[in-house]
Amino acid sequence: MSVINGMNEDIELIVADDGSDDGTSKLLANYKDIGNVKVIALEHKGASHARNAGLDVAEGKYVTFMDCDDTLCTDFFQESIPLIDKSLDLYIFGFVRRYYDGRSVVQSLDNMQYRDISSFADDFVRKGQMLIYSACNKFYRRDILDKHGIRFNEKYAFGEDRLFNYSYLKTIDKVMTSDIIMFNYNQRSLESMSTKPVDGYFDLVKMLHNEKVKCFLELSHGTTEVERKAFVDFDMLNEIKMTIDRFEEHPDERTENLPKIIETIYRENYI
Prior knowledge:
The chain is of the alpha+beta class.
């Protein structure tokens, strides 16, 4: 409802029902006759499949994504839509992370317009705090996504947003970050993907780390070797920390991943 309440006639809403069995399909039937709302009924295959299905039928100049349990901020469209008059390739917005225990953290950005993708990558290598992981806080040009066949990889348990963004960044030039807050990310349940045990967790985060490093070091032309090494080391150590933080809740992950972490630290000399 937060999206519908903020829409106007220029905004297209595509709802991909990922095989729901809780009455959602009946609720969505109430919106199927609204002119700028499309409802797609799918077999349950996960968020990436649902997003790809939505992309395949999208008609707008720009596209963005939103998960079913998140809420769009009031007046977001009124504040953000004027920005697309600049005809840039990527717009990145802030969001509020709300936890199931009542805590909330505002993830915000400065207003910046980058003259080229190298300048954006330079800044990212130096700062590393530019909300690049999620696909739900960005506007993407649909023609670029279609031209390069950029879609979400459906085989991964998590991290598909990151891979999608890295692929997109390699094809664009003009980026803008905005201090506008787009939505509330509500992590209400302990059953969310981030809290479930994942087989091969550290192997997956290492792959995501390598793809991130490859993307930004290829795009960055204005950073020094010292800055680039600091970026690589910090990102890997952060992935190691987050993996270890999961061990108390997931002892099996400790058994599987701790030897891999020790080997990685020893081989790469991250100390």
